Amino acid sequence: MATERTKTTIREFIDFIAQNEQAGERYELINGEIVEMAPVGYPHSKTTIRLIRILGDYVEAGNYGEISTELGTFDQDNDKNLFAPDVAFYRAERFPEPEGFLNILPDWVIEVVSPSDAHNKAARIDAKIKQYQAARIPLLWYIYPNRREIDVYRPDTPMQTYKVGDTISAADVLPGFSIEVKTIFR
User: Fold this and answer.
1) Which residues are CB-neighbours of 42 under 8 A, at least 6 positions away?
2) What percent of the chain clears pLDDT 90, i.e. is strictly above it?
3) Do 50 and 182 meet the contact criterion of CB atoms below 8 Å apart?
4) Number of domains in the chain
């Protein structure tokens, strides 16, 4: 008879992080499983930095909210996920000026896919997308630097793929914001 493995809670995960913070590894909690995050390569880093610059300037100019990178964030109603998105946007009226991890989910999550994740898509990417969708994140971008494509997810809407030559909008969560896909991959 098979036994189900006990899922890690957010409190247990935070304790785990505190005990292992000197080791230098990075982790997320996805559906109660502790997932180690591998170091990123140059395309991932370059894309993330470009997005932070572009979004940071736009958000600051309009006083729309806050941009973060790899900030631990969780939903108080689900103690099995503590995400650390590559880039996240929080509307100003929702951002609590926290200390430590945020106990609210972002309005917009951007994940930049590393080749190691793309090769293990079902285990790494699909599982995380499923959890983001279950959390009803209003806007989710999965960026593939090597393919130069962006998969966009919104609740109750089929996934859309954008390529170089397309313009992509996030105006539903960040007023007036749109960008040409090629700008992200320069």
Assistant:
1) none
2) 41
3) no
4) 1
